[in-house]
Design goal:
Elements (H helix, E strand, L loop, with lengths): L2 H8 L3 H9 L18 H15 L4 H7 L8 H30 L11 H10 L5 H13 L5 H12 L2 H15 L11 H11 L13 H8 L3 H15 L2
Helix pairs in contact: 1-3, 5-6, 6-8, 9-10, 10-12
Pfam families: MerR_1
InterPro entries: DNA-bd_dom_put_sf, MerR-type_HTH_dom, MerR_fam
Keywords: DNA-binding
Length: about 240
């Protein structure tokens, strides 16, 4: 058989056959006097096996091990590893579908794909209008990649399940929104800082509350009076 006939018999392309030659999966027969390679039945059987193993999801290196006739890794071991890999893929797909389902239900997370538990937290809080609430959602979306994610979610989840706490948070956000054009020494700053500090649950703020580059970046993104409220609130929390 010529290479085209061999490829057609195994259901692959001639390019694939040449690639398998280069990867050492299919022995390359010597050329005849006319310059053509001639393949036999064994070549067709090996090529068909390469195709079947590849369709199972094995890499070409793993296929080479299987074809090594006992000199490579055990075929059963490779299949077990493949099954484990498929299990991990299924888990990732289920998680992605859960996040997608949450977004389709209208979870107010913008376009950010979130983990299922964070999406559920935002769904429990519900959509809150205003720029402060929007920034709060953005920070929570960023939390999804933070090392502190699990700790913060554990602290916030009981608040999200408490309608009174959600309403207090919404009211504080509205008061912060009202300070967008205010001066730093606005008389509303002090009382609002005290109220915000009182509403922050124990364990939410840990370590240094000021001076960190991320914290300063957050404060710089806020209007001056709003940032002053947050600074004062964090200082009050640190003194607890």
């Amino acid at each position: 058989m010529r290479i085209g006939e061999l490829a057609a018999l195994a259901g692959v392309t001639t390019r694939a056959v040449r690639h398998y030659h280069r990867r050492g999966l299919l022995p390359e027969p010597p050329r005849r006097a006319n310059g053509y390679r001639v393949y036999g039945l064994r070549d067709a059987l090996v090529l068909a096996r390469v195709r079947r193993l590849s369709e199972l999801g094995l890499s070409l290196d793993e296929v080479r091990d299987v074809l090594a006739d006992g000199t490579g890794r055990d075929f059963h071991e490779i299949l077990l590893e493949l099954d484990d890999d498929l299990t991990r893929q299924e888990t990732r797909i289920r998680d992605r579908r859960a996040r997608l389902a949450a977004l389709l239900r209208g979870v107010p997370t913008g376009e950010d794909p979130l983990s299922a538990d964070l999406a559920a937290l935002l769904e429990a809080i519900g959509h809150q209008p205003g720029s402060t609430a929007a920034k709060e959602r953005e920070l929570l979306a960023l939390l999804d990649t933070s090392p502190d994610r699990d700790r913060v979610l554990a602290v916030l989840r009981p608040l999200a399940d408490d309608p009174a706490a959600v309403e207090r948070g919404s009211a504080l956000n509205r008061e912060l929104d009202a300070l967008v054009d205010a001066e730093v020494d606005d008389p509303r700053v002090g009382p609002l800082a005290a109220a915000l500090a009182e509403s922050l649950p124990a364990g939410l703020v840990s370590g240094e509350v000021e001076g960190g580059s991320f914290g300063e970046a957050v404060l710089e993104s806020m209007a001056p009076a709003q940032a002053e409220v947050v600074r004062r609130a964090l200082r009050l929390v640190a003194r607890r």
